Amino acid sequence: MPKFFRTLIAGLITLTLIGAVSASFALTGKKAKSVPTLKVTVEDESGFSKLQVSSNTNLSYSFKKSGNSLTISFKAPSGLKLDKKPFSSQLVKSVELAKSPNGYSLIIKTGAEDFTFSHSARKNPFELIVNLKLKGEKSSPPESSFSTAEKPAGQPAQTQAAAATEASAKGIGSKNQVKTIVIDPGHGGIETGAKGSFGTLEKDITLSISKKLKDDIERGLKYRVVMTREDDVVVPLDKRAAIANNNKADLFISIHANGSRRLRASGSETYFLSLNATDEEARRLAYFENNSGELKNEVSTNDFDDLKLILWDMAQAAYLKQSSQLAEIVQNELNELLNTKNRGVKQAPFKVLTGVACPAILVEVAFITNPEEEKMLQSDEFQTKVAEAIYQGLNKFLQLYEKQ
Amino acid sequence: MKTKKKKIRLFLILLSVLIIVVLIFFFGSRKEKIKHVVKPSGTSSAVKPTKTVQMKKVTLFFLSEDDNLLHPEEREIQASSSVNDEAKELVEELIKGSKTGLLGPIPENTRVRQVFITSDGTAYVDLSRNLLGANYYGSSGEMAVVYSIVNSLAYNFKSVKKVSLLVEGNERETLGGHIDLSQPFVPDYSLVAR
Ligand SMILES: [Zn+2]
After folding, report:
1. ipTM
2. CATH code for residues A157-402
3. What is the pLDDT of residues A16-26, one digit of tens each?
4. Which of A36, A66, A47 has the alpha carbon at shortest distance from A315?
5. What is the CATH number assigned to the segment(s) A37-134?
6. Fold of B55-188
7. Phi, psi of A206, deg, nearest 5
8. B138/A237 CB distance under 8 A
């Protein structure tokens, strides 16, 4: 037998061996997880379309309507698959599953922008029914047979469905009616925030400036002010966003003092959220949500959340445009009124901003780690000036919005 | 019949010998490749008492008192056949701080518990609790910690596409109330001085 052939055969056998070994590795890898499946059916009933989502696992979810699409976000740490039956519907054009930063989003595209929706759900097995209808349609969807069974006491299913419909109507109809401003004094309690070299604590400065800002707003504008904390207490970051959403906030302002290892770092800056989106799908989804353009204030309740905290994983994604405008205007005012160095408008993935469902910014007033600025931050005069600058910024932003 | 059986046996023996030869050749050449990639530790081999340690040049990112950007500093770490080990050593060097007068953003008493890189390119950097509660953890202080680690790892290891920070083996909401750590970070070289 020629040497060439033997070498060839030997080579082939080696390759087969390597192939078999890697194949068995791949197989064991695949076996490890079982991913929950979303079964989706769409049916047209008289006057509305019924979308039914079921799964073998209980899922928590939230809704967001934007333009001609409705997005249902699911928390799904172990992944999610879509099993959708082919359908043809008057209203629902497509149903797609996309990866979002904190889970998965079911994106329902409809043929019209002026649709409303209501929903009902139950656990074990998980089933979510969403009724979508055009606003002009007269016949209303019937209550699902089980929708009253699982509701928390004191909140009948009907009000909930009605609230959802009302919310989506508000998004299109009477927009730009700013009523509530939420002020979020950074840190609190044992969570002191950054510390200055003279011992000044960020949490004290933020609360003091926030109280001054609250007074300014209540004196000068006809808006309700809600504070995420009034005292020196710990408030978890997601609770702060929930407070804003529960109060149907129209603007959210988080007040902080900055810190850096660089002692010379100085100046003020205003931040809005950057999506720490790591995959293309999330970026695409964020883009699509950002370009919906309207200032919405839809609030949807989550059936599975006992505290009824309204918190959307990435709610802020829909408001980045307005948030950046607000940041720009407030930073301009800070530059004019303060003699601090202008560090400009910046973006960062702030935990406290992600769940806020309205234009939201975080103001870093000055550096507490810079000894000169620390002294400044302690002074009542500087704090008053900062509050005044932020107030002027909010005022300008609101005027701009009322004109639009 | 008998001669045929003998022939087959001979063929099989030859085959197995060849497989062994091929395998040796395969792994042998791989080893050589690794040797090639790794830079020998220069001319100082005679000075060192034991084996020569192979070193690898890396670039670390630190803060500077002059501006708000990250600045590169070259460093040598011990080369290893395991990327996880090299990545761990890199983060340890980063924590030790700069040798050229730059500022290290990570508290010096922080220990690296583990670094592992998954097949999807996520590096999990597990640090001790000393990472938390620094006086300078405002937004800027936290951003500096995150991106000195993320940029340094992604810049030096092609297999690292994103970085997730863990504290004492657990996911952590933030370092001090600002930057969200629940999602992995992709490198951001716009924070690096040119
Ligand atoms: Zn802060």
Report:
1. 0.73
2. 3.40.630.40
3. 545 444 444 44
4. A66
5. 2.60.40.3500
6. GMP Synthetase; Chain A, domain 3 (3.30.300)
7. -65, -40
8. no
